[in-house]
Every structure is written in C-alpha cells, then in structure tokens.
C-alpha cells in the first residue's frame, strides 16, 4: 500500500515567513536516528487527519467569517433583539448526525443563516432579560485564540496557566481579597457558589468530611441566606448532601436585604435545637431586584458566630471597581469565599465565572487529589501548578484569555465606569417609570435592576399579570426590547436588568414609550 | 453637556450590504412614540461602550489574527511540542491589572509572543501526555462564532439552544442510548461524572434526598468502581457528601479490568454489613492503561443487584463509533448514565464534556428548580426548554457549536476511523517497544494508551524511575515529544496516550529512537 503517511502534508497558505531556522533546529534535534531499523506497519490505514487538505481555502473562509462577525456585532443595534424561529430552522436542528462530510463553507453558511440569525439576544443594546453580560469583540477573538492554542488549564507549566492565574489574581484584587487568597475560573456563578459552599462545608464539619461524609456529622450543618437567594444555592446544598432543609432562608427588609436581627435570632434558635450553624451567604445583588445585603454586618456576625462567610457576588461583586458605587458592596473583602461572574459585568462572552477563597490551604484541601498519573515534576510540562486542585474540573479550557485581553485593552477603570453607567441608567429608568403613570415602580432600584409594571386602574392582580406578560412577549416578538418578569412579594412585574455596555438612554426612553403603547393596546383587548 | 449618547455610533466597516429593508422595518416598529415627552437625564456620563470607535481597525486586526492562526496550526509540526518559559514571560503574567487602556494590537502582540508561543502542546502531533484531544481549526472558528453570537445556553427559544440539544442527541445516538434519554454539555468529564453520580445518589436513596440530605439515609450508600477508577470519582463522592469511604475500589484482573467476581462478593459483604449498594461505575478506558471494564457483565450485575450503572466513558465511550473497535465498549448502551468528552476523541478545543442519562425524568428531577424569575412562557424568548434543569450551571456557553461544526464538516464516520487509527497506532507503538530492548512493555495496550519503560539490566526500581523520568523530561525539554508517566502495580513507566489526529507512524518511530538514545545517554551518567 502507498506510504501516504510518510508525506509531509500540506503547507499553510498564510503570509508569514516560514522559519527555516526553526525547521533546521527541529531537524537537528530530532534525527530519525534509528528509524530505518524500526518495523514499519503494513496494515495501518490512512492516516487521516482533521486538518484541511488546503489551508488557503480555510484561511479564505476564516477571513469571510471575520468580516461577517464584524458586521454582526457592529450592526447589532439595527436588528431586532430577538425573533421567533421558523419551523424550517427548528427542523434543521433535529436532523441526525451526518455520516458523510459537508464542505466547511456550507457548514458555515448554515451557522450564519440558521444560528447567528436567531440569537438569545443578549449582545443587543436593548436586551435586559434575566441577567447577562453583552459580550465584546475582543473577547470573541480571545476565545478563538484560546481554541487555536488549545491548551488545557488542568495545570502544568505553560503560558495559559499563568494567564489563568493572573486573571484570578486580578479579580481577587478587584474585590480587595488578600494576595494569599486562591481562586479558580469556572463555568459560571452557580459552580463558583458551589465551590465556596463545598469549602465551607468541609471546613466547618469538625471532622474529615471528605473521608467520612455528611452522615458522620453529629450535628446537622445549617447555611443561612436571605429569602432572595439565587436558586443555585438550593442546588448547592442539595448537591453537597446537606439537603435543601439545611438552607435556612431569612426574611428580608423593605429593601430586600437580609434582616440581620432575624438572622441572629435564627442562628440562636438553631444552636438551641442542636444544629451547627456553619455558613452565612451574603448576596451582593439579588437576581430579583439587585438588593445588596449589608455585607459588613454579615462579616461581623460570621466572626461572632464562627460561621463561614460566603458572598454570592455574581451580579454585584465587581461593583467594587465602580468609583461611584463601590461603597454598596463594602464588606465583601471580609468574606471567606466569593463567587463572581466575568461573563456579567466584565462582558466576557459566555462562559466564565470565578470562585475566590481567602484561605488557599483550605481551598486546596477541599479539592486536591494526587493520583499517580498526575504527579508534579521539577522540570518539564508538569512543573507548573496543578490547577485542578481548586475545583471540580480536571481538564479546563482557557476562558481566562478573553477576560485578560479585554481588561488589557480597556483597563479596569473603564469597566468600573461602565458599571457606574449601568447603575445610573437604572436610576434613569426608575425615574421614567415614576413619571409615567400608569407605570408603577415595584422596587426602588438598588443597583441596575428595575422592577415595574403597567397598572391601569381597577384591575385584579391576575389581570395585571396577564397584561404585563403580554407586554413582555410583544416587546420580545417585535424585537424592540427583551425584558423578563418576576414576582416580588406577590406582585408580578416586568424586570429590566441593565448589564449592558451598549445600552444608551435613548433605549430606555424607547422602552418606556413602547411599554405605554403596548399597555394601552393590550389592556383594551 | 453634549448629548454624545444620542449619536448613532460608528458603522462597521465590513463588506456586506446594509439591510435598508431591515432598518426601515425596525424604525417602523420602534418609533419614538412619546420619547420627546420623556424626561432626559442631564447627569448621565458617557455613555461609554466596549465597542471599538473604529470597526475597520478591529477588522484588520482580526484578519491578521486569522492569518497567524492558520500559520500556527498549519505549521505546528515544525515547532517543538513544548518549551520552557523564560523568566521575562513569567514576569509579564505577574503584573497587576492595568488601570489604563492598551491598544488592542499591542494586546494581541503580547498574546502572540508570550501566550501562543508557550503552549501546553496538545495540538502537536507528538503530544501524548495525560489524555487530551488535539483540537481542530473548524472548532476554533466555532468558539469564535459562539462568542460573537453570545447566546446563553441556560435555556430559551433560540438557535443555539437547539444546536446544543442536537449535539447532545448526536452523542446519545453514538453510544446507542434511546431517544428518550437526556443529556447536557458540561465543562468536561469530571463534571459529567459528577452529574451521573448525583442522579444515581438521589434515585437510589429511597427518600427525598434533595430535601433531607445524606444524613437522613438509614443505610450508607455504596458506590463501586475498579481500583483504576479516575480520581474525579473520589471528588464526586466527597462532593456529594457520601465520603470517600463510600467509594469501594474493586481489584482488577491482569488486564486492569474490574474483577467481576470480586465485585459480586463486595456487594454481598456490604449488604450483610447493613449498607446499601447503590451504584456501579464501569470505566470505558482507564486513564492509566486504557483498560475497558466488561460493561455487559456490569450491566447484568446492576440489574440483578438493583444498582445504578454509570459508565465513565471520558476516554473510551466514543469507541462506539469506531468500526473496528466498537465491540470493546459493548454494553455501554445499557448504562443508566454515561460521561463522555468531545474534547478528547472528537478533538473539540477545550472545553466540552457531556453527561447522558437514560431516564430523562430522573435526570431533571435531580436538578430542576423553578424560581420565580425563571418561569417558562408559551411564546417569546422563554418559550424554549430550560436547559439549566439538567446540571449545575445556570448560565452556560455555546460549546456545542464547535462540536456541531466539526461533525457536520467531517461526518461522524471519519471520527470513527480516526479512533481506529489511534488504536492501531498504539498497537504499532507497542510492537516497536517489544522489538526494541531494553524497552519493556508494562501493559499490553487495550486501546490507545501504551505504558512502557527503558530498562537496562541490573538496576533498582528506584534507579529505573530516575532514568525514565529523566527521559520524559528531556523529551519534553528538547521539544521532540510529550509523554507523561504513571505507576502501574508498583512499576513506574512512561505513558503515551495517542488521542491525536495529527500523529503519524513516523512520529512513533521517532519516539522510539529518541527514547533509546536518551535512555543510553541518561543511564550512562
């Protein structure tokens, strides 16, 4: 059979000069010293590879993709925020896996026509649903370059691992954690919170919980959080084997912040009942209304009561870099662990979250395992740190690069100003709501989340919910704006979470006028 | 102050035609109906944005990046697998977060010179350390496009969510799971295994474990796996509150597969001792030597003993698509849950793993929470499925796209052939080892992992380890090849895991000749 696998393979078509020097160097250090004497296989197929037969063709396609991408992001304001998918698109994504190849340019055409054209919408200036960042072009280049380099962030001695730890250090510094703190980039806030609570559980167990498990505890652990706490914390205590009942929700004050007196009372009650208060979760920015717990007060209580102090800062931790609003999250620097999300207010393209832990030793002791195939070395690839010793993942991608590139490009001060800008925009929107009856402000915005509704006189709560849901759906369906809805203390409302570097005040005035218009239209039917 | 925020912002510089029709449509549906009457803010700063002032400049940079990327991947064979970082690079990544901006082209120059130049090495044809895929260019374009679109895979009605579920369906079909099975793309195998074991724990608890926690169990749960099981399973049982002691390691046979008789005996012992056998983990491809447990036998035992049958298929599940070797993982289709890794043998750039669960209801019941801010809707963005109900994450990135594009481009049959090719290459390498004393084959390769060592006569095990570690380090430091090492039944050895679509037989003959050369060099010192 032909020795196809002996050929050198196609050359890339790109413009840069081949490094003849490097080639010679490699040839010199890699002579086939005794290759001729080695048995050659006769039965080996191929070899095949995923590399293209013609790099110049791939390069040309990639250039087209870049142009389309610039157009896609640069003109996002001209498109609807969201639009429903036609059935043809839906059907396309129900086809079975293809056995045979499709030319890559045809694959891209499908992506362009059927994927890019029907987005979630969160890169749009008028997307304010749930809570998402809006991405940035440099970050997308970062994801591309990370994938090109391909490094695995499980650990080792290579540049990506250093960038990863540098970004963790930057985030650590942003919230005022000490240099000795540790951290890990993860998929997002839910896992970052789970990491913090895992360390909390193990540290506060009073026995070797890794070995013995939760059943060995002589007192049930208790975790405290406000009744506004994100649902991921329920998942976390369930995952950790503590059970949902271990998470005690504490009532909130008129501003939806944890009631500190009620927290103290609950801790006392639980001690009396034979339970072990282990952890208090402070929320820096609740998902419903953006409330920020009194973190300094919680830090005090944690010290007094010997609790682990975890801050869920997925929404608000990074307010610490915003000059006009940093005071709102004062006290976060006293936490034992913090979860935060660069894919929110740093606008890193999805996904990247971060867990930070004040005590590096306790963090590592929660997750480190040292199997025989992952031993460290004094030199070589394995001479770096094993980063998998700080979380659930073994292999890990290079999500750090998109964060690093955007922070290098813009500087952290600008991200701080953008956070201030969003908070000011929420205040503007609240003012607009207040000055436009029959709109009703449901919660005074603490930061960048505005809850309001359209309330014509004399209608039941049920009818009001119908009307406001319909307003929300029509805003989405017309592509004008994306809001979501929620229910706060029994009142259903529309909710705008302005975590968006593309939003302008004119977008907010447009929202108000559209809601008023749709409200009239809907309530007349 | 100037109303800078009223200006329209710079236009993208790309070539495609502006859609005047779309613009008119948007203007028609989004008139500033009453905007003139709305209060305008006087104190709002900016607004600033992360978008560039000049898109044409960014486009030009992106074109340069594409050329460099093609060169980087296309010429990877000409570069060393890995090289140590100079101190100047190390220092660069210890700098604090910049407050001020840096021109984006300078940021990219740093990435090119200091990041791309010092990789982990796993895209290189002679990288066989640990166990990693080697990426592919189309996948990198996929990551770029995913970041450009920016969609959040937490759920909702948009194309990315459909692509995500289509890829899950494709992976489900590849391992022969029924159409009714569910799945979720996750960071990687460790989390995929954790998801499978979480469902197993909750289903086999015999009470409402989510609510009550592990302490409420009247019998301790037991999980069984071979003594070759990956370390992530220890992390998993620890995380789940079962404790490391809940994971019973069963001895392996001469081929490092779980000893089925010993497993049966252990289950019997545990029942007698009052414990509740809950789950057996079968490994399809151990990390040490690539051993594949007898999955059909484990499926039988699971039925007989009423156990959850989880398969850790991170390394080997996808052998099910390889025509010559699929028989090796027969029985995987009978599992209750499977973890697998598209960033291994599908060569998706890091990171993407997948958890599959046969019983969709049980899967969802383990993770679903329905907070008030995440209610489904009959229409609009929230009319899609909530994908966060199947795992730990709430927000999630669009890692599916890189898998989708590569599978569309090449077809699944080619990936199957590439797996066969790697397994044939491992057999070749083993033959080369056997025919070149003083090399010693430590374990007959089952699939694509070859464990061997350089064994000159008359040396102690300690000295042999020193010599082989030194061979490994010099291979890495000269950039010739990346192997890792491990210890199997007390014997330290070199380990080549050939999960690499760029490897050619000539790379393996080069490896042998270099190991022989370095072995002589090292053992003479």
UniProtKB/TrEMBL annotation, chains A, B:
Keywords: Aminotransferase, Decarboxylase, Lyase, Pyridoxal phosphate, Transferase. Its cofactor is pyridoxal 5'-phosphate. It comes from the Bacteria. SUPFAM superfamilies: PLP-dependent transferases (SSF53383). The modification N6-(pyridoxal phosphate)lysine is found at residue 344. InterPro entries: Aromatic_deC, PyrdxlP-dep_de-COase, PyrdxlP-dep_Trfase, PyrdxlP-dep_Trfase_major, PyrdxlP-dep_Trfase_small. One of its GO terms (molecular function) is carboxy-lyase activity. Residues 19-35 have a biased composition (Basic and acidic residues). One of its GO terms (biological process) is carboxylic acid metabolic process. The keyword Signal does not apply. Residues 1-49 are annotated as: Disordered. Belongs to the group II decarboxylase family. This is Aspartate aminotransferase family protein.
């Amino acid at each position: 059979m032909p020795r196809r696998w002996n050929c050198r393979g196609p050359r890339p078509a790109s413009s840069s000069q081949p490094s003849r020097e490097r080639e010679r160097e490699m040839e010199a250090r890699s002579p086939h010293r005794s290759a001729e004497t080695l048995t050659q296989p006769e039965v080996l197929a191929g070899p095949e590879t995923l590399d293209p037969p013609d790099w110049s063709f791939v390069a040309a396609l990639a250039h087209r993709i870049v142009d389309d991408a610039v157009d896609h992001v640069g003109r996002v304001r001209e498109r609807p925020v969201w639009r429903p998918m036609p059935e043809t698109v839906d059907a396309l994504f129900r086809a079975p896996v293809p056995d045979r190849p499709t030319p890559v340019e045809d694959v891209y055409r499908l992506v362009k026509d059927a994927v890019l054209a029907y987005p979630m919408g969160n890169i749009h200036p008028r997307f304010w649903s749930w809570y998402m960042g809006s991405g940035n072009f440099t970050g997308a280049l970062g994801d591309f370059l990370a994938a090109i380099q391909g490094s695995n962030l499980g650990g080792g001695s290579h540049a990506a691992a250093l960038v990863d730890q540098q970004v963790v250090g930057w985030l650590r510094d942003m919230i005022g954690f000490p240099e000795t703190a540790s951290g890990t980039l993860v998929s997002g806030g839910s896992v970052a919170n789970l990491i913090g609570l895992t360390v909390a559980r193990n540290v506060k167990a009073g026995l070797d919980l890794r070995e013995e498990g939760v059943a060995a505890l002589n007192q049930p652990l208790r975790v405290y959080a406000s009744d506004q706490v994100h649902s991921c914390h329920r998942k976390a205590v369930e995952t950790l084997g503590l059970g949902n009942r271990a998470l005690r929700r504490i009532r909130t004050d008129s501003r939806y912040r944890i009631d500190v007196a009620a927290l103290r009372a609950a801790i006392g009650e639980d001690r009396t009942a034979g339970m072990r208060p282990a952890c208090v979760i402070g929320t820096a920015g609740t998902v419903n209304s953006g409330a920020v717990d009194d973190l300094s007060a919680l830090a005090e209580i944690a010290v007094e009561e010997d609790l682990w102090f975890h801050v869920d800062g997925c929404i608000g931790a990074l307010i610490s870099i915003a000059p006009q609003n940093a005071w709102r999250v004062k006290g976060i620097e006293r936490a034992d662990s913090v979860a935060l999300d660069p894919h929110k207010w740093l606008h890193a393209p999805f996904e990247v979250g971060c867990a930070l832990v004040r005590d590096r030793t306790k963090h590592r002791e929660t997750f480190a395992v040292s199997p025989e195939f992952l031993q460290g070395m004094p030199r070589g690839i394995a001479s770096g740190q094993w980063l998998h010793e700080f979380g659930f993942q073994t292999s890990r991608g290079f999500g750090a690069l998109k964060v690093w590139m955007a922070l290098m490009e813009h500087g952290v001060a600008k991200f701080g100003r953008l956070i201030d800008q969003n908070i000011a925009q929420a205040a503007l929107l609240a003012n607009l709501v207040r000055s436009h009856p029959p709109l009703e402000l449901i919660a005074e915005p603490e930061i960048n989340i505005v809850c309001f509704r359209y309330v014509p006189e004399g209608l039941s709560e049920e009818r009001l919910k119908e009307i406001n849901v319909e307003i929300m759906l029509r805003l989405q369906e017309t592509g004008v704006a994306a809001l979501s809805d929620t229910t706060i203390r029994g009142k259903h409302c529309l909710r705008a979470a302005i975590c968006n570097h593309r939003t302008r005040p004119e977008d907010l005035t447009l929202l108000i006028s559209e809601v008023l218009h749709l409200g009239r239209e809907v309530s007349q039917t």
